[in-house]
Write a structure and sequence with these properties.
Blueprint: E1 28-33, H1 48-54, E2 62-65, E3 72-75, E4 83-85, E5 90-94, H2 109-118, H3 130-134, E6 153-157, E7 160-164, H4 172-175, E8 204-210, E9 214-219, E10 237-242, H5 246-255, E11 263-265, H6 271-278, E12 287-300, H7 308-317, H8 320-327, E13 333-335, H9 361-370, E14 377-383, H10 386-400, E15 405-411, H11 416-420, E16 429-435, H12 445-449, H13 452-456, H14 470-481, H15 485-501, E17 505-516, E18 521-522, E19 525-527, E20 532-534, E21 539-540
Parallel strand pairs: 1-10, 1-11, 14-15, 14-16
Antiparallel strand pairs: 2-3, 4-5, 5-7, 6-7, 8-9, 9-10, 12-16, 12-17, 13-17, 18-21, 19-20
Helix pairs in contact: 7-9, 8-10, 14-15
Length: 542
């Protein structure tokens, strides 16, 4: 959510009450983003921004109602949150009647089956791995484009879909909140170009989409509030504009002049602006601080940096104070020492490396000496934004102190994760952030560190450290078989410690995501699942 994408927690400003004025129907909401979405194709989306935007266009089997104090799992396309049987290896969902696409045709169970089957095509890459991991026969299935179907997804009638899993998955109905578990009508599937042609069954549909420039959504006139427990359809148009500098977006929305009054941002506030804006009392009612159950981290490629002492030296050398400063300082989040963040089941408080967030230079130098005092050159991959480049400079400065030369490789933000997740594009060091797909450690450590998935998902590899530790893989399998939550969480805590023992990643910060809107934007819900300002109830005040 990556983006990796892909979040969870609670917080932010008053839900849906930003600014002054009365709620109203109609008008245009402008969304200002520094870059285009990696994907909008629901089976390829794995970033928080893309997932949040897709909530306006497509509906999933289940979803999160976030109008209360804590997120509540509800049926979305489905009438309820699903029925498990046979020890949670079979899950049955019944669809709502009368949910319609943008052309007025009804959404059916075979459409859901076909949508999920798209996950398995090599042309539809980048999305989460759960379908291929859990559906019976998924390891051999190649997708629907050769006319073959996956037998473990059954549709006994027009409104019923049944999934057969190869293992018990007690929280499978939380998996189905992700966009990949949505309906795609076969007649409107355009394969790898579906990103710009997503067929809507949500409140809004794509009117026009010019990549890296502008996306315009208009009302889906066949959408019905009566069938949708999550979304509303208040504004007439959502106009998403891409490509402005991060700080330019911040200053434009802060100014609250002209169209800025009816604008919002989806990417977080620039690190250079965050401290100032977070403490500006005049922005209080339109500033959203959303704690994310996620982690900002530096992945160390264990296949390229093979000496564990060098990796450990990097752990000690990184100055997290300057790193956090690049992202905006204390407002961005607390210093991290683990890959599981507080609030996630399985989190265990420990610190294997420097007790001082500024690092331990003496220990780092000693480890480099034990490694034979090499003078390596390393590449680091970051997004091509000022915030990320300041972060890369902080890493470069820290590692130069122990004899490591760092070459910075900026990658276009709109293609960042699809680039670094392709195994053909390997770097020594890679910036990453990760937000739990739903509030469970099972959506963090197995996805990021199961070495067996590298070969399985070569174009959508989330294991940026290329860690392939049999001890970690064994713990992943052990945890997956556990039905006792306490035992399972203990296994995830043990897994976290082993990953840090391997020095595969440097945890940097437990993240907060901060965004702003104009004074005439209302109905914004701090989405603590995606760590995004949710637009499902958004309106423009008149």
């Amino acid at each position: 959510m990556v983006v990796a994408l892909g979040a969870t927690a609670c917080g932010g400003s008053a839900s849906g009450s930003s600014g002054s004025g009365a709620p109203g129907k109609g008008g245009t909401l402008t969304i200002l983003n520094k870059a285009d979405y990696d994907h909008l194709d629901p089976q390829r989306v794995y970033t928080t921004e893309g997932s949040s935007m897709d909530e306006e266009i497509v509906r999933t089997l289940t979803g999160w109602d976030e109008t209360g104090s804590t997120p509540k799992l509800v049926g979305d396309l489905a009438t309820d949150t699903g029925t498990p049987s046979k020890g949670a290896t079979v899950w049955t969902f019944h669809l709502r009647h009368g949910v319609k696409y943008q052309d007025g045709t009804e959404v059916t169970a075979p459409d859901v089956k076909y949508g999920v089957e798209r996950f398995f095509s090599s042309d539809i890459n980048g999305g989460p791995p759960y379908a291929s991991q859990w559906l019976v026969g998924g390891s051999d299935y190649k997708g629907p484009y050769q006319g073959k179907q996956l037998g473990s997804i059954q549709t006994p009638d027009k409104y019923t879909v049944v999934f057969h899993l190869n293992q018990p998955v007690a929280d499978f109905n939380e998996t189905t909140t992700m966009t990949g578990w949505s309906a795609v009508p076969k007649a409107h599937d355009t394969g790898s170009t579906y990103d710009t042609k997503v067929w809507s069954d949500g409140p809004y549909m794509i009117k026009s989409y010019t990549k890296n420039k502008e996306l315009v959504l208009t009302r889906n006139t066949h959408w019905s509030q009566a069938t949708d427990p999550i979304r509303q359809q208040n504004v007439d148009t959502m106009d998403v504009r891409f490509g402005q500098d991060e700080s330019a977006i911040d200053q434009q929305i802060k100014s609250d002049a002209g169209t800025a009054q009816t604008s919002i941002q989806q990417w977080p506030i620039a690190g250079s602006d965050l401290a100032q804006l977070a403490n500006d009392p005049s922005l209080k009612n339109r500033y959203y601080k959303i704690p994310a159950p996620g982690i900002n981290y530096l992945a160390i490629n264990t296949t390229r940096i093979k000496d564990p002492k060098v990796r450990q030296a990097i752990e000690y050398a990184i100055d997290k104070t300057t790193v956090r400063g690049a992202f905006g300082g204390a407002a961005y989040g607390d210093y991290a020492t683990t890959m599981l963040s507080p609030g996630i089941g399985g989190y265990r408080k420990f610190n294997r490396y420097s007790a001082n967030p500024a690092g331990n230079l003496a220990r780092a130098k000693a480890l480099m000496k034990q490694a034979g005092d090499p003078k390596p050159s390393m590449s680091i991959a970051v997004e091509n934004t000022p915030t990320q480049e300041h972060f890369a400079d902080a890493v470069k400065t820290a590692l130069e102190r122990i004899g490591i030369t760092v070459n910075i490789t900026p990658i276009d933000a709109s293609n960042y994760f699809s680039t670094v997740n392709n195994v053909k594009n390997q770097y020594d060091l890679t910036w990453g952030d990760w937000i739990a797909d739903w509030p469970n450690a099972s959506t963090v450590l197995p996805t990021l560190f199961d070495g067996r998935l590298i070969k399985k998902n070569p174009q959508a590899n989330q294991d940026l450290s290329y860690l392939n530790d049999p001890k970690v893989d064994a713990l992943i399998d052990k945890a997956a078989r556990m039905t006792d939550v306490k035992q399972r969480n203990a296994a995830y805590g043990q897994m976290d410690e082993q990953i840090l023992k391997d020095a595969a990643v440097v945890p940097l910060t437990y993240m907060n995501f901060s965004d702003m809107s104009g004074s005439k934007v209302g109905g914004v819900i701090p989405d603590t699942i995606l760590a995004e300002p949710s637009l499902v109830h958004v309106y423009v005040k008149h």
